[in-house]
Hints:
Layout: H1 2-17, H2 20-27, H3 32-43, H4 50-80, H5 87-117, H6 127-156, H7 158-163
Helix pairs in contact: 1-2, 1-4, 2-4, 2-6, 3-4, 3-6, 4-5, 4-6, 5-6
Amino acid sequence: xxILGLLLIFGVLYKAFRSVPLVLQIMLNIPTVFIGGIIGxxxxxxxxxxxxxVGFIALAGIVSRNGIMLLSRSLQLVKKEQEPFSPETxxxxxxxxxxxxxxxxxxxxxxxxxxxxxxxxPGKELLNPLAVVIFGxxxxxxxxxxxxxPAVFYRFGxxxxxxxxxxxxxx
Length: 171
């Protein structure tokens, strides 16, 4: 099920970016969700179950969205606004998108707190593990992706960015 989710995410991203290197750079952030998610499961004394796996799939989408926001702004600056492909441009793009990414992640994480605290209540047996994984994964993936995505894009994305024909106005 997780592999199918990854393939679907890859397909959607490829349709948007038309570049395998850019899609792979975005998807490189997906493993970062496991850091916080696994720590969350460990801290709550749980064993990974189906609800946790569903949480990991949801996180893959969220972290992909964060990568899309970071890369699309960089592409917009380089392609549309004719800024040079430089560390300064990528830093500017990252700073432009940091607040929206943090706001989305923080809002989602805060909304999950009641589900995490209600773990022992009847009817919350599936929602609690899902919330724990998403909360922990959001913390780790958001913090790491704000550094990892721009760094990887600067190191490996120049060629793909120059060939890119993606319309970033929709992002």
